[in-house]
């Protein structure tokens, strides 16, 4: 839900109509006094706040939003320069000047959507526990227990989908640090925004910076900052990160004050950093700073004994999300254990979710698995994966089905899975789906996936 808060009722209605014209669902107009009661238990996608409201009122609204979810984007409408001095250093604040232009509103709504994709709880992602009793998993648990109480910087390496963030969260939870676990994907944020996201900025530091904003380093004060996909960090940012690791101080963009930070840094990558050093795209001195304590996350193909436990955990997640519980026949489970899982746990999660959509009741048989997993699909690739989906849908239920709705459901879930894997980056998700960006944006609106 998007909430519009303005001191003038006619202005609220106009903004609401413009947002709805852009095909945004659930737009509510409210006042500074009743907005909290109006939204009830609805999930906030964004709050539009008039810049003309008194500072004290703005502060009250910001505090109310933070109490619900400090990751809700705030959109300041109008040209007033009286933004609250207390204006939420935690917040992602966007600006829409008067008169409001459709192209500017469209860009703001797209950014709101992208933020909400990242915010949305990924119900198919593994939980916070490390599942499995293989030797590799036991070794990882032992390393976590050893390094967690220290202040050592940790570098987690491994293929995509192996649970590197779960390892980082376990280190944080066992560290005794009282601050937050703050994560940022260095490869998912455009280079020109990454510095602001990490270090924050002062008011007036660049066009549109109407309020000062804390970066992830400050938000992680007393806790842990997780730098995911560190191998994709631009070289210029690597220099600044190296300085923070050495001196434990930061400077906001546009600021002159050095701000000390008490944080634990954990980095992760699926890249070969030594190769990147040889290519000149990753600094060797930063590599040694980060890899004080290295941990390697094993691919799923090297620990097939963990597949049954992981599959059961993911089936529980499916039951929570869809309200249906699938089961696996012995032959189907054996095929899952024998498969090499190039996409690791993330691929297993996608397969279990797909089976829940296509086979919402009963026991999944071997012939209902994708061909690549059954072992008769040849070399695995996108065509094989698509063929596996097609094969598993050929059995028509006895009571028939609504084909249009069935295909729409499959499309929606595939788009949602691509967006989760791309951390909400539309261009990246579009590429993985073989779609143009504009086409994907339209499908996102059609399937109401923006919030």
Automatic annotation (TrEMBL):
A GO biological-process term: regulation of DNA-templated transcription
Alphabetical keyword list: ATP-binding, DNA-binding, Nucleotide-binding, Transcription, Transcription regulation
Highest rank taxon of the organism: Bacteria
Domain Sigma-54 factor interaction: 130-357
InterPro entries tied to this protein: AAA+_ATPase, AAA_lid_NorR, Homeodomain-like_sf, HTH_Fis, P-loop_NTPase, Sigma_54_int, Sigma_54_int_dom_ATP-bd_1, Sigma_54_int_dom_ATP-bd_2
A matching Pfam family: AAA_lid_14
Keyword rRNA processing: no
PROSITE patterns to which the protein is assigned, alphabetical: SIGMA54_INTERACT_1 (PS00675), SIGMA54_INTERACT_2 (PS00676), SIGMA54_INTERACT_3 (PS00688), SIGMA54_INTERACT_4 (PS50045)
Example of a GO MF term: ATP binding
PANTHER family according to UniProt: PTS-DEPENDENT DIHYDROXYACETONE KINASE OPERON REGULATORY PROTEIN-RELATED, TRANSCRIPTIONAL REGULATORY PROTEIN
Entry protein name: Sigma-54 factor interaction domain-containing protein
């Amino acid at each position: 839900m998007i909430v519009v808060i303005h001191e003038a009722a006619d202005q609220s209605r106009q903004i609401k109509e413009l947002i709805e014209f852009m095909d945004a669902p659930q737009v509510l107009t409210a006042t500074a006094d009743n907005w909290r009661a109006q939204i009830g238990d609805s999930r906030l996608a964004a709050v539009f706040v008039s810049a003309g409201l008194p500072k004290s009122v703005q502060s009250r609204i910001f505090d109310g939003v933070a109490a619900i979810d400090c990751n809700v984007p705030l959109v300041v409408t109008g040209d007033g320069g009286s933004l609250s001095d207390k204006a939420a250093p935690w917040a992602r604040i966007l600006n829409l000047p008067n008169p409001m232009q459709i192209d500017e509103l469209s860009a703001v709504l797209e950014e709101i959507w992208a933020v909400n994709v990242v915010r949305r709880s990924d119900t198919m992602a593994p939980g916070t526990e490390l599942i499995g009793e293989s030797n590799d998993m036991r070794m990882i648990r032992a390393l976590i227990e050893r390094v967690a109480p220290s202040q050592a910087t940790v570098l987690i390496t491994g293929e995509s989908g192996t649970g590197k963030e779960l390892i980082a969260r376990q280190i944080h939870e066992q560290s005794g640090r009282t601050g937050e676990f703050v994560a940022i994907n260095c490869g998912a944020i455009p280079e020109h925004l990454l510095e602001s996201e990490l270090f924050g900025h002062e008011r007036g530091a660049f066009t549109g910076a109407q309020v000062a904003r804390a970066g992830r380093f400050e938000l992680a004060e007393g806790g842990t900052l997780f730098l995911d996909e560190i191998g994709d960090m631009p070289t210029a940012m690597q220099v600044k990160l190296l300085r923070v690791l050495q001196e434990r101080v930061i400077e906001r963009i546009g600021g002159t004050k050095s701000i000390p930070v008490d944080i634990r840094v954990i980095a992760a990558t699926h890249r070969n950093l030594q190769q990147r050093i040889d290519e000149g795209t990753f600094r060797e001195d930063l590599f040694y700073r980060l890899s004080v304590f290295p941990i390697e996350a094993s691919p799923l193909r090297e620990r097939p004994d963990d597949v049954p436990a992981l599959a059961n955990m993911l089936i529980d997640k499916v039951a929570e999300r869809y309200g249906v519980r699938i089961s696996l026949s012995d032959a189907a489970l054996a095929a899952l254990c024998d498969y090499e899982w190039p996409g690791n746990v993330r691929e297993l999660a996608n397969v279990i979710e797909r089976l829940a959509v296509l086979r919402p009741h009963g026991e999944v048989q071997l012939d209902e698995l994708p061909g690549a997993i059954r072992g008769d699909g040849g070399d695995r690739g996108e065509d094989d994966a698509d063929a596996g989906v097609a094969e598993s849908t050929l059995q028509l239920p006895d009571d028939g089905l609504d084909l249009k709705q069935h295909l729409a459901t499959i499309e929606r879930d595939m788009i949602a899975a691509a967006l989760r894997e791309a951390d909400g980056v539309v261009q990246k998700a579009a590429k993985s789906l073989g779609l143009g960006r504009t086409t994907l944006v339209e499908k996102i609106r059609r399937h109401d996936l923006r919030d």
